Amino acid sequence: MKTIKTMSKIFVKKEELTLVNGGYVVTGKNETPVYNEQFITVQKHAEWVVTFAEKAKGKDFVGKAPDSIESVKEEVRKALSSKGVEYVKAPKKVKQDLTEKLQEEALAFIKYQGESSKTEKINKFLQQFNIIQEFEEFGLYFEEDICKLNKIYTIEEIVAAVTAVIDIID
Q1: Most CB atoms closer than 10 Å: which of 23, 105, 116, 142?
Q2: What is the pTM for the complete model shown?
Q3: CA-to-CA distance for 168 and 163, rounded, in angstroms?
């Protein structure tokens, strides 16, 4: 006779999910092992993204052109040739309040455009982590089963990591 084991669904909220004994995902006082395939897959991807952000921090992926001795010589020539005596004082710059305000507004607009574009990229990339946001806000159904994670990542940690490296990963 064949026995069929039915998996029971357990609704788990954020504060009820923990890791024990080296990363086993459990819930409740009895530490029932639980599994949700989509949640676990996204958590592992979140671990990759957060680790990537940590390792990429402070790295220079563009690099710069090396300085040449010729450019240094040219700078010296220019610096020495421009030394002269000032016989007539330059006039004072006219204060241009309107022009300065317009420049500030233009710079603020350019900054806004850049930040809007970056925010759009971040939000688009983060859509793959919707299940974690849903879990944190409402909870999820899990099945009784055994699985391991190194850490349960929060949406806040993921957002911080993605924000730091969006220009690299997108």
Answers
A1: 142
A2: 0.70
A3: 10
- Reported as a single tens digit per residue, the pLDDT across 37-52 is 999 999 999 999 999 9
Whether 158 and 132 have beta carbons less than 8 Å apart is answered as yes
In the numeric block, the tokens 């990759």 are attached to 48
- Triad 106, 111, 117: Cα angle to 5°: 130
Contact 11, 5 (CB under 8 A): no
Each domain of the chain, given as residue ranges in start order, spans 9-55+98-169
Convert 33-48 to b/e letters by CB count within 10 Å (16 or more is b): bbebeebbebbeebbe
9, two tokens: 């669904």
pLDDT over 80 at 126, yes or no: yes
Cβ atoms of 131 and 38 within 8 Å: the answer is yes
32, 168 Cβ separation under 8 angstroms: no
H-helix segments, the chain: 37-56, 69-81, 97-126, 130-137, 155-169
pLDDT, averaged across the chain: 87
